[in-house]
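Section 5: illustrative case.
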């Protein structure tokens, strides 16, 4: 199951991806993100929960990189990803280096820390931050 929801009141893009996926599923997820992200003003926070996500295709990094790039283009202020395995966490960190999002991207294993991070307004010295 996956969900993508733009919460305009909270200025947050909520993404949950927690199942097995093939390339067609990843295309659908990217389409939904593209659609929902346009409902948010710049400076939004991306709250991503990928606990339980397993990908059946080796091409998944291309889609995750695309998702991060689209968020950067729409001037996301923070990207917080909740993960449940070390390999995925390391892959997402590498993708952050490739997309230039390391200053605003963090991965979490602890749900409480993740929730605290997404509920805290971004710092104004970050390159993709905007005034709230």
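Designed sequence:
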């Amino acid at each position: 199951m996956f969900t993508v929801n733009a919460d305009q009141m909270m200025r947050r893009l909520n993404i949950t991806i927690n199942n097995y996926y093939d390339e067609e599923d990843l295309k659908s997820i990217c389409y939904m993100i593209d659609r929902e992200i346009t409902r948010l003003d710049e400076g939004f926070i991306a709250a991503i929960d990928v606990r339980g996500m397993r990908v059946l295709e080796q091409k998944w990094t291309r889609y995750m990189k695309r998702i991060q790039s689209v968020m950067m283009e729409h001037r996301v202020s923070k990207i917080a990803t909740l993960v449940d395995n070390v390999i995925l966490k390391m892959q997402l960190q590498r993708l952050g280096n490739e997309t230039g999002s390391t200053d605003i991207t963090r991965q979490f294993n602890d749900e409480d820390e993740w929730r605290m991070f997404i509920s805290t307004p971004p710092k104004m010295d970050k390159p993709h931050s905007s005034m709230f």
